[in-house]
Amino acid sequence: MQDDGHFDAEVAARYDEDHGGTDPALVARCVDLLATLAQNGRALEFAIGTGRIALPLAARGVEVSGIELSKAMVAELRKKEQSPPLEVAIGDMTTTRLPGLFSLVYLVFNTIDNLTSQEVQITCFANASRHLEPGGRFVIETNVPPLQRLPFGETSRAFAVSNDHMGVEEIDVATQSHISHHVWPKTGLKRSIPFRYAWPAELDLMGRLAGLTLEYRWADWDQSPYDRLSKKHVSVWRKA
């Protein structure tokens, strides 16, 4: 039986609350831009999760499908659906294939980093390209590696400190790997999740290997200019 990995029922039940899903302004900005980039075509979300983005995008009239490894996350999505169910395939976003072609494939909220080697990140780009029609777009939202905020020789930094949530990143600059350690004091829940960060230029090369060319790079969903102070980026690659 397939394992839900780090996103089991306990995490899935709290995922929206812990990951900005209750911020309607943030979700609206994301959905507005994705709807524009879809250009009235079909959209596919890699790691669709609880439907935090897919459901409001579908409510905008975009035909949305998804791929998701965690059955528990999809179960939360199904609880929220109020219209015909979305097409969701349970599987790995690097290899699972849905029928037909899409005008938009998107992967949000740092999820590319959940793929913990360069090889599987390259495979993810290749799978996105296979799903895209000519002229289609692949969108990734992810953090810029936080090395400017890490003193030389240090390996850890706190990124969340509150009564509700404490988080510490453990970073290995030699391998580009990092582990995100989380503690929720009120519930006693603890999680440590491995990631691999990639620089924007590295992602651009992965895109080129998959037949995709960088079209846009912004600092956020408002399309603010990306610069040396940007903490994250929203990047758009287009298929020839």
List the helices and strands and how they pair.
Blueprint: H1 9-18, H2 24-38, E1 43-46, H3 54-59, E2 64-68, H4 71-80, E3 87-90, E4 102-107, H5 118-131, E5 132-143, E6 156-161, E7 166-172, E8 177-184, E9 189-196, H6 200-209, E10 212-218, E11 232-239
Parallel strand pairs: 1-2, 1-4, 2-3, 4-5
Antiparallel strand pairs: 5-11, 6-7, 7-8, 8-9, 10-11
Kindly summarize this structure in a few lines.
The protein is an alpha/beta fold.
What are the main properties of this structure?
31% strand, 27% helix, alpha/beta, single chain, 6 helices, four-stranded antiparallel sheet, 240 residues, globular, seven-stranded mixed sheet
The main pleated sheet reads as: 7 strands, mixed
Mean pLDDT: 93
Strand order across the largest sheet = 3-2-1-4-5-11-10
Percent of residues in helices? 25-40%
Helices, by number, come to 6
Distance from N terminus to C terminus (CA atoms, Å) equals: 39 Å
In terms of DSSP E residues, the strand content is 25-35%
- Label the overall shape: globular
Structural class: alpha/beta
Low-confidence stretches: none
SSE topology string: HHEHEHEEHEEEEEHEE
Q: How many β-strand runs?
A: 11
Radius of gyration, in Å, reads: 17 Å
